[in-house]
Amino acid sequence: MCQSEARRGPELRAAAKWLQFPQLALRRRLGQLSCMSRPALKLRSWPLTVLYYLLPFGALRPLSRVGWRPVSRVTLYKSVPTRLLSRAWGRLNQVELPHWLRRPVYSLYIWTFGVNMKEAAVEDLHHYRNLSEFFRRKLKPQARPVCSLHSVISPSDGKILNFGQVKNCEVEQVKGVTYSLESFLGPRTSTEDLPFPPATSCRSFKSQLVTREGNELYHCVIYLAPGDYHCFHSPTDWTVSHRRHFPGSLMSVNPGMARWIKELFCHNERVVLTGDWKHGFFSLTAVGATNVGSIRIYFDRDLHTNSPRYSKGSYNDFSFVTHTNKEGVPMRKGEHLGEFNLGSTIVLIFEAPKDFNFELKAGQKIRFGEALGSL
User: Which ranges make up the Mitochondrial matrix topological domains here (predicted)?
Assistant: First the structure.
């Protein structure tokens, strides 16, 4: 028996050395990665990170023993070229579908997202030449009556994610997850062409928005799902005096993602329209999302979203107040304002008297024209 064990000794040592070889090779490879520049390291470690989250739990745990750590899911998601993918999706949406293919493609979309085509101005699916036309379909005039009893109505179909007073210059994108009001609207760097002067602190920034004594600042966040009506309208009678465009990312803005990524709305591309209504400051922000690189404002022909010529982190200002137009662009409640492709988010931030009340519940479904709140 001792002789047999002695004969098996070299075999066992050879097997152990063979089993150690992958670990040694991995250590050597990680040593090479540690000498690389940060961009190269990020590129080389990305496939391992993807496998780490896709494979069954613990499958790549041995990698941690040799010093490797996966990047976070948020970091991994942010590294996806969403702007490029959204531009490609936009090009695909413009491709005209053969007449025989339109009904099955649109029917699949209707079934998947629960679209109500009985409300569409044109119910015939063959009428829509491409996906873009189908996404931006118009409604029958009687499908969305505008409430005349309340001062603020819903600008779009969607789901109410959050609403209420703005406190400590923080706005909730979903319950418990906030973002900075100044980061969202942008820094007040110049008094020229802006509806309010620059602020030096959180308190003064908010005070510059609240222009009348006794008023408070309010917000409302509406999420548009892919199956919702994609146009948005003026939520009240107001005058638009300024537009600020933030190129940003184009990450998904569904409620689950909004809980996952802090300040998601501040990262994403958005178009901020600011102006005044009868109670003071009023703003409507259209937030882009994955495959929603195209945000269109009907009266703003100079606006071009998801364009390669803009760099992330920058913003572009445009004033509607000119020498010939001293006030801006007047909008009536319910008037067509703009449109998205696929689905996205509308954020309203406005000042109103302290007795302003929202007629809402968090999580409820709402349609364009229905009441948001009133005095």
Answer: 1-45
Catalytic (active site) residue 190: no
Residue 190 half-sphere exposure, CB side, CA atoms within 13 Å? 8
What is the band of 43 on the pLDDT scale with cuts at 50, 70, 90? very low
Asked about 233 being catalytic, the answer comes back as: yes
Q: What CA–CA distance (Å, rounded) separates 284 from 333?
A: 13
- pLDDT tens-place string over residues 301-319: 888 887 766 666 678 899 9
Q: What is the pLDDT of residues 283-299, one digit of tens each?
A: 999 988 766 557 889 99
Which of the following is catalytic: 132, 154, 157, 267?
A: 157
Q: Using an 8 Å Cβ cutoff, are 94 and 132 in contact?
A: yes
pLDDT tens column, 240-273: 999 998 887 776 666 666 666 666 667 778 899 9
DSSP annotation of 145 reads P
DSSP string, 275-325: EEETTEEEEEEEE--TT----EETT-TT---S-TTS-TT--EEEE---SS-
157 is catalytic: yes
